[in-house]
Structure formats: structure tokens, C-alpha cells
Amino acid sequence: MTVQYFDWAATSPISERALSAYTESARTYRGNPSSLHEEGRAAARFLTMQRQASARLLGVQPQQICYTSGATEANAIIMQSLLWRRQPGKVILSSLEHDSILQYRRLLETYGFEVVIVGAPKGYVDPKEIAANLDERTQMICLLLVSNVLGTVQDIASVSSLLARHRQETGRRVHLHCDAVQAIGKITFDLDKLGVDSASFSAHKFQGPRGTGMLYLGTSTVEALSRGGAQEQGIRPGTEHVAAIAAMNVALEDALAQEQEHLLRARRIRRAFERRLEDHAGLMLLSPSVDSGLAATPYICSVAAQGVPSEVLTRILYDMGYCVSSGSACSNNAPGKKHGLLVSAGFSPSLASSAIRVSFGPDTAEDEIIGLADAIGTEAGKLKKITRKR
After folding, report:
1. Does an H or E element contain 141, and which?
2. Do 232 and 264 belong to one domain?
3. Rounded Cα distance, 94 and 199, in Å
4. What domain count does the chain have?
5. Cβ burial, residue 309 (10 Å; 0-12/13-18/19+)
6. Residue 343's pLDDT is what?
7. Distances (CA, A) of 204 to 148, 224, 226, 252
């Protein structure tokens, strides 16, 4: 049986060019970049070149790039930095955030912080709601760029402008952190224009290796809670994974170089998927339609077959050769959490519990995704008949 992969939002297959870059770099640069012998110095020079490449590709300065094990660690660095504050204040999070941010609520509240969760009706945070919660005690706002469940794109630039006015009026700076994990290759964006103070990235979301990523640190300083060596400007101690970083940059270069071409193709494929879904009764598109005019990436789509448990449908689809997800991969082992985002976005609990996420990449074929739409509709219909008989 040929397995067709529609879970790119969870992880993407590493590209051949990235894999080759990893192998070559691992063989060539065997030294620790912090060592003083020639093998170490060669690795250090190569790491400097890679940092310059990362910065060039993201349109930032090399000193603003910190390499991490991925976005979860990058998010942790930002959230834990709050614990150094002399006086706890207010932190504003969106309900769309990844658990690597939302799960800090309990810790922060234990240390005396006020944590406010703002809603995201149909997957969109209203900057006015953030403004309504902004005051002189606010120290940080976290707002992801692209939803990993609905594919919706947030208006971060408006929030950044709001914070600039807040600073002018009060003299207080509020740190704006952006989880940009699902953004590279899926939408066009500019870190400078977004106006964020920090942003997190994971290589395996854009066909790079797993276990490596980046933290962009803009104008605001961050003090890391985890201590060790002086690597990565003291922000992320530990020996840098030079080969993975090199592979990540190759994947990043390819994703950005082909972004527009791939986006055009993705919109066409998504449109074909949506039209085929319309042929099957009882299916509901939860993500914005590709032709809705709303800000969203075409690569991520949630659809529900009300009354059919998503875990059951995903297992049946896998037996047929289709890999889809019943939610964020990081929440699959946390009962009760995987559908919470959809409920907070205004969808009924029954719809949320029936939702599956379809996410695809640049090499997904149109006939494959049409076949998936037919499989979803057909199998959901069968399951509904069985349920009614009971």
C-alpha cells in the first residue's frame, strides 16, 4: 500500500538537498565550535558563515539569530525570561498559541503574573481585544503568525503598531513574541515589517532536519534562564549542531526561493480539495476557504464530519493509505486538549471533536488530495450510518 502524506504541519519530509548538506557538513566539520584547536576553529568559522546565511535569508542581522533545538525551546527561552523580572506583571496570550507557550500559564501565575488569554473567533485574534487588555503592567504579548490547526494568519503588524503607540504614551516597552513555526514557505512575511521583538522557527516544518531551529531576537534583550556555556550569546548554552544548522539553511533557501511558485500551486490544489468536499454531504470546512479573501495559508485545512469522532476517522483513513491528523501533533498525547483550540475559536464541541486537519506540501499531487476528499466523505458517511443504526 502506498501511503500518501497529508500531515506536513506536524512535520515535513527532509529534502534531498538538506539531507546531503547535513551529511557533508557532519563529515567535514567534526570539531566543537568552542574548541581552540584547528578542527574547532574550522567549525566555528563554518558556524559563522551559517549564521550570516540564516540572517540574510530572514532579512535580519547575524547577531539577532540564536540557534536552538527547535521552536519549543525557543518559545521556552522567551517565556522563562519573564521569571527574571523584578516585579511580575501582565502577560497576554492568544488562545491559538502552541502548548509550548500556553502551558506556561500555570508557572507564571505561580510567580505572581496575571495571564490573560484573548479569544480568536474563527481563528482570528482581534487587535482591539489586545488593546482592551493592554495596560501599564503588561510586559509581554505572544501571538503566533499562522495557526497550526486552522491556517489563519494573524495581523501582527497592527499589534506591533499598537505597542509602538503604547510605548510613546507610557514610556513602557512590551515584548511582542511571535511563534512563526508554520509561516516559512506557507505565507510571505517580513520580520522587520511585522515589528516583533522575537520569533521562533523549527527547521522540520520547511523540509529541514528535526531537532534544530532558530530564535530571532530583535531590539529587545532577553536573559536566558538556562545556564551553561557561552554559546549563542549565552541565550542557548550547549554545543551547536553545526550539520543540522547547515541543512536547515539549505531547506530555508529552497523554501523561500520557490515560495511564490509553490503558493500558486497550493491554492489550486486546495481549491480542488474544497470543491470535491462539496460533493459529499455532511462535511464542514472549518478553515477559511481559499477563495474567501481572508488571511490564511492554503497549506493547512481543518474539516469536520459532525458526529464522527476524529480519532476514528483518522485511523480508518490511515488504513486506506492517508496520513492526516486529528489535531496538533504535539497535543495528540494530551486528552481533552487537542480540540480546545477549535472550541475557543467558536466552534461547537461536537464539531471540534469531529475535526481532522489536512496539511500538504509542494510535492502533493492534485489527484492525491481529490482522492483524500472522496475518502473522507465516503468513510464519514459509512460511520454515520453505523452510528444511526445503533
Report:
1. strand 138-142
2. no
3. 15
4. 2
5. middle
6. 93
7. 14, 24, 24, 10
Model confidence band, residue 335 (pLDDT cutoffs 50, 70, 90): very low
Please give the DSSP secondary-structure letter assigned to residue 296: B
Over residues 108-140, the pLDDT tens digits come to: 999 999 999 999 999 999 999 999 999 999 999
Q: Residue 108's domain spans which residues?
A: 16-256
Residues 167, 175: Cα–Cα separation, whole Å = 11
For CA atoms 135, 191, 179, 26, the dihedral sign is negative
Contacts (Cβ under 8 Å, ≥6 apart) of 41? 31, 35
Average pLDDT, stretch 134-152? 97
**Residue 85 shares a structural domain with residue 170:** yes
Quote the pTM value: 0.94
Q: Which residue has the cell 459532525?
A: 306
3-state secondary structure 58-84: HCCCHHHEEEECCHHHHHHHHHHHHHH
Active-site residue numbers?
330
Q: What is the pLDDT of residue 228?
A: 77
> Distance between CA 317 and CA 380 in Å, rounded?
10
Q: Are residues 359 and 296 in the same domain?
A: yes
Residues 241 and 278 in one domain: no
CB contact at 8 A, 316 and 356:
no
Same domain assignment for residues 207 and 188: yes
Q: Please name which of 211, 155, 150 lies closest in space to residue 182, comparing C-alpha atoms.
A: 150
User: Which residue(s) pair with 126 in the sheet?
Assistant: none
- First-to-last CA distance in the chain? 32
Phi, psi of 261 (to 5 degrees): -60, -45
227 and 269 fall within a common domain = no
Going across the sheet that includes 90-94, the strands are 65-68, 213-217, 198-202, 175-179, 138-142, 90-94, 114-118
CA 297 to chain centre: 12
Rg of the chain, C-alpha, whole Å = 22
Q: Give the separation between CA 115 and CA 140, rounded to whole angstroms.
A: 10
- Which backbone phi and psi does 215 adopt, to 5 degrees? -120, 120
Q: 337 falls in which pLDDT band (50, 70, 90)?
A: low
